[in-house]
What does this fold into?
Amino acid sequence: MAFQRAAHPAATRAYRDTEDEHPTLPGNMQRDSFAALVERVAPRLGVGPAAAHAFLRLATMTRPSDWTSTDRTPFIYAEAGEVAKMLGLSQPRTRAITCELERAGLIERRTGANGSRSRAAGTGLYFGAAIARAAELMALDDQLTAERQQAIYMRGQRSTHKRHLARALDRLAEIAPRCPEAQAIRHEAETWPSAERLHGMDLTALAAHVDDADRLCRTALDLLEKREESSGGPLENKRPYIQDTTEESLVSCNGHVDMQSAGKPAQDKSHVVPPDGGPNCHENKDEAASGAFKSEFIARLGPQRLFGLASPEMQLYLSGRAEPEYLRFHDFVWAAERRVPELGISPDAWNAAREVMGEDSAMLSVLILDARKSEPGSAIFKPGGYLRGMTERYRRGELHLVRSLIGLSERRRAGHGS
It folds into this structure.
C-alpha cells in the first residue's frame, strides 16, 4: 500500500462560510512575491518542483487584490479540465499536483457534490490556507537563506583547505619525494567529493567533511614542518622576526602613525593604509611573495604578536587550534573565515578581498577590522562595507596594513596602561 502524506492542518481549516475571516498577506507583501516565496520553501514542505511551480502559475490566475483584501479570499473556480489546459498538463497530473499542494497546506479544494466548481457555489481552489501560513513560511524562507549562506561559507572553507593542502603536498614532494606519509595524505585527499558534489550535501554532512579536510590539511602541515626541520629548511614559526620590544618593532616603510579613532570608515586614509612605500620597500615584496600556506606577516611579526592584536572572538577560535607561538597561517585564515559570517560580511565581499589582495592580506584585513570593531567607542557599523572599502583602497595602492597594525598595538598599550 502506497504511503499517503497526512494533510497539513491548514488544508482542512474551514474557510467555507461567507462569515469566515479572510487571511491577508502581511505588510507590503503582494501576490507574486508571496508565490515566489512559496516556490522557494516548497522542498521543506514536501512539495516537489513541479507542484511548487504549479502553485506559482495558479496564483497568477487570481486577482492580486484578493490576497490583501479582508473580505474575500483568492480562488480559482475554473473546472479541473480548464485548469489542466492552463497549466499545460494532463488532468490526472493536475489532480495529483493539486492533491500534493493540499496535503502541504497550500491550497484548499472545495467541490460540489458532483466534483464541479463554480463561482456562484463558492467552489474551486482556494489559497487562504497558504495566506494564513505567511508568517510561518517567511520564517522558513529566512532559515533556508541562512542555511544557504552557511553552506556557501563552508564550501569556501573546503576550498581553502584543499588549496593549502595542495601547496603543502607540492612542497613535500620537493623536499621528500618518497615520503609515504605524504602519499597517504594525497590518496585520502583524492577521495574528497568534488566541488559540484558539495552543493548536494546537507549542512551536517558538509560540516563533517570540512572538519575532515581541515584535519588532513593540518596533518600535512605538521608533516611538512617536520620534514623541513630535518632538511634544515625554514619553518614559518621558527624564522627570525622582529621582537616585540618597542613600537619601532612594527615599523615598515610607512611613516607617521595617526592615532585617531579606529571607528573611521575604510575610506579614511589615516587609518586603513597598505604598502606603497616605494620600490625598495620590503612590505611590497612580501605582499607579492605571500604563498598559499605561508604568511609574510606572521613570519615578520610572529604568530604571538598577531594573536595579541586579534579580537577576543578571534583569539578564542585561535586558542582552540594551538598555543599562540605555534599558530600557522592556515589557523589564522581558518579563524578569519569563521569571523567573516559572524561579522555580517557576505561571501562576495570576502572572496573579492582574497582575489584582489591575496589570502595573506585579506586575512589580515579581517583581523584588523574585527579587532577595531571590538574596541570601545568603535563605529564600524557595516563590516562588509568596511572590508569592501579596504579592498578598493588596496586596489588603488592606498591600504597600509602594517600601519594599521601599529595603530592597534599602540591603542592596546595605551589601554593597558590606563
